[in-house]
Amino acid sequence: MIKLHGFPASNYFNMVKLALLEKGVPYEDVRVYTGQSEDMLAKSAMGKVPFLETEQGFVSETAVILDYIDETQGGPSFYPADPFGKARVRELIKYTELYLELAARRCYGEAFFGSGPTPDQTKAEVRTILERGVAALRRQASFAPYLAGEAITYADFVFLYTYPMAKNVAKIVFDWDLSAELPGADALVETLKTRDAVKTVDEDARIGQQEFRAHYGIK
Ligand SMILES: N[C@@H](CCC(=O)N[C@@H](CS)C(=O)NCC(=O)O)C(=O)O
Q: Using a 6 Å cutoff on CB, does residue 61 contact ligand 1?
């Protein structure tokens, strides 16, 4: 049985967990926090979570894990069957990951962990990337009702565990309402939250918050 390593307060961990639950793939949940120990780096070379343990070895990086699960595990695929449709979904995943998640993450300290104001230079860089990322999604995503159209895809799983945090960062750090820039985004999140698998992931994340904060010494 495959094993998913990480912790339930991690948004990336939850993208993969949601894919496993939605596909009905049996898996074992292994609690691991981030770190740079030799043992950790042997399993996830950047010391990040999530990572997957398979019979052949370890696989890290969420988008890669999603593809691996899609190609090797049973249950429905959350990619379109045709290569162009699949490429468009992967494109949406990349836009979300590179230009929303990674940009917003640079302000997580101020927004979520009480670690003081973000330096002005960082704020300026983040704002520019977020503006372009949001504009790219506004152009490329359909929100009808899902990111790639009528069918739910892996892009929605990634978006669900990225956009709400980016929206909070925008509000707290920039006093900027992201939902006004991305019509349909809030409605999509609400639609996704009605799914049983999402409810499970979110409840586990809520329960895992205290352990996560204690582990990293966050008040
Ligand atoms: N590019 C990685 C990012 C994963 C990531 O940043 N995970 C966070 C936890 S939510 C982490 O491990 N942070 C520790 C670190 O950046 O060293 C992926 O797609 O899986």
A: yes
